[in-house]
Amino acid sequence: MTTAELMDYAEVVTRFDPVLGLEVHVELSTATKMFCGCSNQFGGEPNTNVCPTCLGLPGSLPVVNAVAIESAIRIGLALNCEIAEWCRFARKNYFYPDMPKNFQTSQYDEPIAFNGWLDVTLDDGTVVRVEIERAHMEEDTGKSLHVGGATGRIHGAEHSLLDYNRAGVPLIEIVTKTIEGTGERAPEVARAYVSTLRDLLKALDVSDVRMDQGSLRCDANVSLMERGATEFGTRTETKNVNSLRSVERAVRYEMTRQAALLADGGSILQETRHFEEASGTTRAGRRKETSEDYRYFPEPDLVPIAPSREWVEQLRGTLPEMPAERRKRIQAEWALTDLELRDLINAGAIDLVAATADAGAPPAEARSWWVSYLSQQANNQGVELGELAITPAQVARVIALVADGALTNKLARDVVDGVLAGEGEPDTVVETRGLKVVSDDSALFAAVDEALAAQPDVAGKIREGKHAAAGAIVGAVMKATKGQADAKRVRELILQRCGA
Amino acid sequence: MTELTRLTAADIAAKVAAKEVSAVEVTQAHLDRIAAVDHAVHAFLHVDTERALAAAKAVDDDVAAGRPAASPLAGVPLALKDVLTMQGAPTTCGSKILENWQPPYDATVTRRLLEAGVVILGKTNMDEFAMGSSTENSAYGPTRNPWDLDRIPGGSGGGSSAALAAFEAPLAIGTDTGGSIRQPGAVTGTVGVKPTYGTVSRFGLVAFSSSLDQAGPCARTVLDAALLHEVIAGHDPLDSTSIDAPVPPVVAAVREGATGDLKGVRVGVVTEFAGDGYETGVAAAFTAAVEQLRELGAEIIEVSCPSFDLALPAYYLIAPSEASSNLARFDAMRYGLRVGDDGTRSAEEVMSLTRAAGFGAEVKRRIMLGTYALSAGYYDAYYGSAQKVRTLIMRDFDAAFAKVDVLVSPTTPTTAFKIGERTADPMAMYRADLCTIPSNLAGNAALSVPCGLSDGLPVGLQIMSPALQDHRGYRVAAAYELARDAAQGGPLINRVPELEVVH
Ligand SMILES: [Zn+2]
Q: Where in the numbering of this chain does the Asn/Gln amidotransferase domain appear (chain A) (predicted)?
């Protein structure tokens, strides 16, 4: 690799227009696989969720999972797609050890959903409409584990292990039309699209959408064209993009890499590349000598799918409030400014705040907790806000305890710390850590008397009417009660004791 | 040969139920017959003596305990084509690539047979992956025709039909993709039925061409075929292409046909299936059979189905295309033969070496044909055109069945040819299925019933019926069978030469 391999990003976007195409694979969270009755559970012992059909044994036959079709249609509807009146599965033929039949049962020229769009809001509030070409159903392959060799890839490995638990897991592939005209914001658009799609799929409750576990996978097609050019450049397809951040980095990297090549008079090879998480770069996949001819033809073991219009409309009725609409509603209900809303969204807090409000907390309080203290804790732990070990209901309970006067704000933070540390429900933490506000005046009088006795000169000043001096005594009492007293009440008691 | 092996399936079941003979005795008689003659015929690839006798014993126990029979065929032995899976026995499909493969599950057909108390004797020989018309393409050596051991028993299901003609079993199961039940039936003087596509489950039938494959009954009489038909047919949720409809009433149709009256039945003679390429003896036997149908009261009408001439080329694009994909799974990764895995070769190399060593020439020829026909740039011209022809053939059938109740033709243009005679000429071999292929392409029902001899070799009469009207063909066949036997002085099958017996 030479140093001229990457072009400075600012220069890239002055000289080239990027064109994107995003293919997202979503594993559906159906109970069973796409074409057999095996459990569709992630993480089982290798080769335990298998049967003759998903192992492709001779004589076995597929039967379509009706729930998967339902999910596919709901996804299509949520993406504003048309739903096919009649469509088929096809066979995509190629040899690979982790594919039991050496063909993948997929949809080819007859996808179940097509011609849709998804509006994507960028960090600054700009809305970009991404056109959806199609959403189609297919089955996942098994997994290969290459043992030995330096790279963990099939090349150079000593041997390979195959796990077919994933073989036949239902997938929906969502393909965008080409995304043009996004200029320097292309990487951000790519990330925001995947993020928005993820939220939408989560709201539909059709998938776990865990990029880290592979239940949502993104392939990014990137090409550049000289500014003012009318023809698209050659594209590359980058795979192994396993997080939202990686989507953005991968697109950005490809833009700088391709720009450098093009500027150098070189040409782009149409190829599959792999994103390297550690370095933030992409590398070429193994080059094939011939271009793959998948010899698609209609799957003769399955009958066509013809969803009735009544059924489609019935499924449309099951669509939940879409995340974008929900945000608009929440903004109105909570009277948020655009900036406040965006902060909430960018912190990944909106759903958590809403759930906390649903659990009975005032929205403003809920927002304040998630955006400030809890965000800090997530930051400290290096996890997403939603991954913190506290539920919206627990946060709502803490807020209620503060409102009741049972906790001060400081104590409330201690309770939250306790919950995060796995010490149980907020009430349990209050109990075990002994964090209740000391509201018993007699207990406080004792502490006040003790403090006054310890600082007779200060006590004298107060008795002379210098009320400001009371602060020192308040501090001493708070220290003695480990902050569990209400400072305002302590002050009142001090003044009362001193007859001031 | 004991008398027990000469009985029809219906008679065996009746005698077992009446305790005149035990199922174990019947089964043992057939096992003995196999031991005595299969060295010459080679109908079986695998015989499971212990399991067969255990299954027979279970039937006898039912009879002894007074329990109702599991089916009208309880206790009757059967030979299963080695393309259907059965737990505890190998399924090879006549291929080296599946040598010793033991499937972990039963085909639906197998399960239905076992539940019906049918005694499965073993697995029968076949052309590799059901590709062929002579059983010469079996990796385990050819099966010989009991009528003349130098001749082929038809294919791909030559083993099943030869087992019937050699009295090694009264019943057999075949599979028919382009004629693999009917053509062997014709050349061995036995009955072979291809039911309507989708009426017999394909679950557990190792696929050759998924849109054409159909399992069906093989027997020595039309009634036996019908009884077996009703045991194996019926909707199966494990096969998406299975039709959720009642099984056509084929046994009742046979009983109706046995009255010998075909008045009001319109029989269409397909004019395209005559002339050049049809042996004189075959044409003569066919013409005589049509005359016999006329005498039984049927109205005979000539019908032209011009697209049928395109059936053979269309079939040799569709079937190999599907086969090229269906057979891709035989890659040494999970089961079956593995060649070249010496620790130095890649998975791709092992796949390639295994497929080179494990598949025979005809299978490779069809994989290449199909791969080519599906290739980018050729798909429309080949696979796409063939599918259009398929539609035309369906239309010809629809037009014909608007005028007639059933269509008839010779089952195959010639009688059994000599082993080795056509192996060097694939086109000559493919022509054996000229008359049988249209029904596979259209997915309707067709059967072959023996209709006389030509130079001492059996000739078959094919009767085709509309989809789900399988019973029409059975009725005509049953009436014809009765008249034929009356005219010819007894069942044709009794004229099969005695085989040399080893003790
Ligand atoms: Zn499975």
A: 351-498
Residue from the list B325, B333, B371 with its beta carbon closest to the beta carbon of A103: B325
Structure confidence by residue, pLDDT tens digits, B459-490:
999 999 999 999 999 999 999 999 999 999 99
In angstroms, the CA A166 to CA A72 distance is 19
Instruction: Delineate the domains of chain A, giving CATH numbers in brackets.
Output: 3-312 (no CATH), 323-420 (no CATH), 441-497 (1.10.10)
CA of A138 to the centre of ligand 1 (A): 15
**Domain boundaries defined on chain B:** 3-308+391-495, 312-387
A133 phi, psi to nearest 5 deg: -80, -45
- Per DSSP, the three-state class of B471 is helix
CA B60 to CA B37: how far, in whole Å? Answer: 27
Say how far apart CA B35 and CA B122 lie, in whole Å: 12
Q: How far does the centroid of ligand 1 lie from the alpha carbon of residue A141, in Å?
A: 12
- Between B398 and A403, the more confident residue is B398
Contact assessment for residue A105 and residue A313, using Cβ atoms and an 8 Å cutoff:
no
- Pairing relation of β-strands A16-27 and A216-226? antiparallel
- The share of chain B scoring above pLDDT 70, in percent, equals 99
- Alpha carbons A482 and A477: distance in angstroms, whole number: 8
Place of tokens 């969720």: A49
Distance from CA of A300 to the nearest CA of B (A): 5
B382 DSSP assignment = I
User: In whole angstroms, how large is the CA radius of gyration of chain B?
Assistant: 21
Q: Tens digit of pLDDT for each residue in B99-146?
A: 999 999 999 999 999 999 999 999 999 999 999 999 999 999 999 999
Q: What is the pLDDT of residues A295-354, one digit of tens each?
A: 999 999 999 999 999 999 999 999 998 888 888 888 898 888 888 888 888 777 888 998
pLDDT value at residue A290: 62
DSSP A73-137: HHHHHHTT-EE-SSB--EEEE---TTSTTSEEEE--SS-SEEEEEEEEE-TTS-EEEEEEEEEEE
Name residues of chain A where pLDDT drops below 70.
1-4, 149-156, 286-291, 500
CA distance B436 to B15: 36
**Residue among B238, B322, B334 whose CB faces A300 most closely:** B322
Is there a contact between B57 and B68 (Cβ–Cβ < 8 Å)?
no
Q: B5-17 burial, b if ≥16 CB within 10 A, otherwise e?
A: bbbbbbbbbbbbb
Q: Which residues of B fall within a CB distance of 8 Å from A91?
A: 325
Report, as residue numbers or ranges, the catalytic residues of B.
81, 156, 180
Q: How far is the CA of B90 from the centre of ligand 1 (A)?
A: 22
Residues B330, B81: Cα–Cα separation, whole Å = 20
Q: Return the amino acid letter for B189.
A: G
Over the stretch B174-190, which tens digit does the pLDDT of each residue have? 999 999 999 999 999 99
Identify residue A11 by its one-letter amino acid code.
Answer: E
Classify domain B3-308+391-495 by CATH architecture. Answer: Alpha-Beta Complex (3.90)
Distance CA A193, CA A188 (A): 8
- Helix (DSSP H) and strand (DSSP E) numbers for chain B: 16, 11
Q: Which residues contact B178 (CB under 8 A, 6 or more apart)?
A: B212, B315, B319, B433, B436, B437, B440
Query: B312: which 2 tokens?
Result: 């053979």
Closest among B5, B19, B42, B2 to B146, alpha carbons compared: B42
